[in-house]
Automatic annotation (TrEMBL), chain A:
One of its GO terms (cellular component) is pyruvate dehydrogenase complex. GO terms for biological process: pyruvate decarboxylation to acetyl-CoA. One of its GO terms (molecular function) is acyltransferase activity. Residues 150-187, 217-254 form the Peripheral subunit-binding (PSBD) domain. Its EC number is 2.3.1.-. This is Dihydrolipoamide acetyltransferase component of pyruvate dehydrogenase complex. Its cofactor is (R)-lipoate. Pfam families: 2-oxoacid_dh, Biotin_lipoyl, E3_binding.
UniProtKB/TrEMBL annotation, chain B:
GO terms for molecular function: pyruvate dehydrogenase (acetyl-transferring) activity. It comes from the Bacteria. This is Pyruvate dehydrogenase E1 component beta subunit. SMART domains: Transket_pyr (SM00861). Coiled coil: none annotated. The keyword Transmembrane does not apply. Residues 4-190 form the Transketolase-like pyrimidine-binding domain. Its EC number is 1.2.4.1. The keyword Oxidoreductase applies. SUPFAM superfamilies: Thiamin diphosphate-binding fold (THDP-binding) (SSF52518), TK C-terminal domain-like (SSF52922). InterPro entries: THDP-binding, Transketo_C/PFOR_II, Transketolase-like_Pyr-bd, Transketolase_C. Keywords: Oxidoreductase, Pyruvate, Thiamine pyrophosphate. It comes from Pseudoteredinibacter isoporae.
């Protein structure tokens, strides 16, 4: 039996979670060797080439250009030439991304699933009441008279329904009052589950009469229509002559009872943004975000959200710096320093001098870096990237300048290697 | 326990606190009724409502201070006294006059505790009349509790009945923060505002709503005079098989958000009745609260019942039309229930 192998979305660097296939560089039927370039793929950081890790004939290109996929997802299938199509199809259908690669990415959501499962089972178990939960819940109902305990109306009502003694609930409200939420949390921490009544929006227009309507005066057309539409004549106004329900009354009742219900459901439920925008003449364009734009947005939001921000601004007199720059640029062939180079160098020297600034904080420990790896923001046509001047404190001004020029050039060409833009210790931006 | 009027209950609350604590004093226009002036009867009117009648002879004119019509001056005196250890109860006859002393109540008194790093307390109580219904015209009929509610540092009380009035007033005087105690002028002698009131002193904590009635279908929020109008509407609604939670928040700042949200989560429908403002008012504040925190529980859009956005008319029929009435509340409740009011009236 022939071997079938997969080309999957690679994981370039720790932070890569997905990639967008930009272009296939092979066609179905091509023969590839290990290390052959098969596709271009864009990540949040770079456009890179996907190499085949297997050898054989490309039997199926599964991913489409433009498609964004999680890492380890199937890109293409490589197998021997004589492997039947049906076997390839079965392989694709049964393909499971490797768990190892995905585990760290999906950590959060899989935890969530577990939580939901636990909650569900807790809910299910309430009916059967297994021993430990029963004991904990039972303990909640014990205690003396709780009629003097300070609790809100609905807290008391709920406690009554679930047989909870309010002496066992700790209050969180104003004036140490027990709220409904406090009772719910006491029940749930004892292993119980409080069902929340969900609003069923389909059933909101429930004010339909089911009384006998045979005595109601009605025009014959209206009576036929009401029967057809399932409208009870008690739900109709009687605006016809001689106090009869007329056709318009039945139609109005129908619009109210049937039309409104479905209309409301639609408005609240199924309409997606795209459907709504399709209904009105387009007054805007949705511009898809590139991976880089998404990353910029996510990182900026994360930073604003999680790090305390403070701003310092100082005015510096640069006369001497500018004079030095003019002098070096005039005297040293092959060197063309920018003011930014001076800023980078000065930053690196300052970081060496004040290592307590050259730190990262992960919530547990302060990581103090031994070298000043200065990230420098470089503007690109579609965003920005921050290549790193490694150990900038050890570099001369000329080295800073030349290295920076090289990094910026490759940044703009999209050919930076991941290690060249991941892991800086301090950032400089003049964008 | 005797049944007492709203007016009596307030008078009792003031008297109890003046007896308990000699730092408590009263100041305002005519509150002793001219006592202390040459040729004046000591036991004079006791304010335009007679609430402080007899206080001057019982406590002395040093503790029941008559002032000219000079709100800025006497409110400033009260604020300074509060900041230096007294517990003044200043009477701003009509809350409509607040413009004359608003600096004190907007920018001084509510800010002291904060501006002095928590070292200063300002136990000032301001009693003031709100409300329409007496043909007092546009300049004496407003209910401005929403303005004070929007000022951090002020507590705002809008009692609806005699029992609450006494307990909340005593709480206000004992409270270390400035409190606006806003009495609807129609309640003083309203029979339904009278209640069994204990002779002894008691307090009602701020920020705890009173459930005037419990029901399943609609939550109605109303306070002051409107609590009585809402209760009338609730009785009408009950005849149609619709039962309501009628909640009197009693204080708008702090507000018992929890009780409101818990009730709406249970009924799924909300009608807010307020005499205050047609725009940016208390009703809108409650509607926003519920829309933010209990939207998923709502079965229909929130309805607000407020006066129209215009000055209170002088003409009595127009004024009655201007005031939120029981019929409007019933209509709003039927509306949130999804019932055609016209059809149900025919039926």
């Amino acid at each position: 039996m022939s071997i079938i192998e997969a080309i999957t979305v690679p994981k370039w660097g720790l932070t890569m979670t997905e990639g967008t296939l930009t272009e296939w560089l092979v066609e179905e039927g091509d023969t590839v060797a290990v290390g052959d370039v098969v596709a271009d793929m864009e990540t949040s950081k770079i456009v890179n080439q996907v190499e085949s890790s297997v050898a054989g004939v490309v039997r199926r290109l599964v991913a489409q250009p433009g498609e964004t996929m999680d890492i380890a997802q199937l890109l293409a299938v490589v197998a021997a030439e004589d492997t039947p199509d049906a076997v390839i199809d079965a392989y694709i259908a049964d393909f499971e991304p490797e768990e190892v690669a995905r585990a760290d990415l999906l950590g959060d959501s899989s935890d969530e699933e577990t939580d939901i499962a636990t909650a569900d089972s807790a809910a299910a178990e309430i009916d059967t009441i297994p021993a430990p939960e029963a004991q904990a819940l039972g303990a909640l109902s014990e205690g003396g008279d709780d009629s003097d305990v300070h609790a809100s109306r609905y807290a008391r009502k709920l406690a009554g329904e679930y047989n909870v003694n309010l002496n066992n609930v700790s209050p969180s409200g104003r004036n140490s009052r027990i709220s409904k939420a406090d009772v719910i949390s006491a029940i749930e921490s004892a292993g119980g589950h409080v069902t929340k009544p969900a609003v069923n929006r389909d059933e909101l227009s429930t004010h339909r009469s089911n009384l006998d309507d045979s005595h109601i005066k009605v025009t014959s057309v209206a009576a036929r229509l009401a029967k057809k539409l399932g409208i009870n004549l008690n739900d109709c106004r009687a605006s016809g002559n001689r106090g009869r329900v007329c056709k318009a009354d039945v139609e109005a009742a129908n619009a109210l009872l049937n039309g409104q219900a479905s209309g409301r459901t639609k408005a609240l439920g199924s309409n997606t943004t795209s459907e709504i925008s399709a209904q009105v003449d387009a007054v805007f364009d949705d511009v898809p975000m590139t991976g880089m734009r998404k990353t910029i947005a996510a990182r900026l939001q994360e930073s604003k959200r999680e790090a305390p921000h403070f701003r310092l601004s100082i005015d510096c007199c640069l006369d001497q710096l500018l004079a030095l720059r003019a002098q070096i640029n005039a005297e040293e062939p092959g060197v063309k320093l920018s003011v930014n180079d001076f800023v980078i160098k000065a930053t690196a020297m300052a970081l060496s001098k004040s290592p307590d600034v050259n730190v990262q904080f992960d919530g547990e420990t302060i990581r103090r870096f031994k070298h000043a790896d200065v990230s420098v923001a470089v503007a690109l046509e579609n965003g920005l990237i921050t290549p790193i001047l490694k150990r900038a404190e050890t570099l001369s001004l000329a080295q800073v300048s030349n290295e920076m020029r090289s990094l910026a050039t490759r940044a703009k060409a999209g050919t930076l290697k991941p290690e060249e833009f991941i892991g800086g210790t301090f950032s400089v931006s003049n964008l | 326990m005797a049944e007492k009027s709203f007016r009596q209950a307030i008078s009792e609350g003031l008297r109890a606190e003046m007896q308990r604590d000699d730092r408590v004093f009263l100041i305002g226009t005519d509150i002793s009724g001219g006592a202390g002036c040459p040729g004046q009867d000591v036991d004079a009117a006791g304010g335009v409502l007679g609430i402080t009648k007899g206080f001057a002879s019982d406590f002395g004119v040093d503790r029941v201070i008559d002032t000219p019509i000079a709100e800025m001056g006497y409110m400033g005196i009260a604020a300074g006294a509060a900041a230096t250890g007294m517990r003044p109860v200043a009477e701003l006859m009509f809350n409509d006059f607040v413009g004359s002393c608003f600096d004190v109540l907007l920018n001084q008194v509510p800010k002291f505790h904060y501006m002095f790093g928590g070292k200063a307390v300002t136990p000032l109580t301001v009693r003031t009349m709100i409300g329409a219904g007496a043909s007092a015209a546009a300049q004496h009929s407003q209910s401005l509790h929403h303005i004070f509610t929007s000022i951090p540092g002020l507590k705002v009380v809008v009692p609806s009945n005699a029992y609450d009035a006494k307990g909340l007033l005593i709480q206000a005087i004992q409270d270390d923060d400035p409190v606006m105690f806003m009495e609807h002028k129609a309640l003083y002698d309203l029979p339904s505002a009278a209640a069994e009131v204990p002779d002894e002193a008691y307090t009602i904590p701020f920020g705890e709503a009173n459930f005037l009635q419990e029901g399943d279908d609609v939550t109605i929020i109303a306070m002051g005079l409107m609590a009585h109008v809402a209760m009338g509407a609730a009785v009408e609604l009950a005849k149609q098989g619709i039962t309501c939670d009628v909640i009197d928040p009693r204080t708008t700042s702090p507000l018992d958000e929890e009780s409101i949200l818990e009730s709406v989560e249970s009924t799924g429908r909300l009608v807010v009745v307020d005499e205050g403002a047609a725009r940016c008012g208390f009703a809108h504040d409650v509607a926003a609260l519920v829309a933010q925190h209990a939207f998923a529980s709502l079965k229909s859009p929130i309805k607000l019942v407020t006066p129209p956005h215009c000055p209170t008319p002088f003409s009595s029929p127009l004024e009655q039309a201007w005031l939120p009435g029981g019929e409007q509340i019933v209509a709003a409740a039927l509306d949130v229930m999804g019932i055609d009011a016209a059809a149900s009236a025919v039926a």
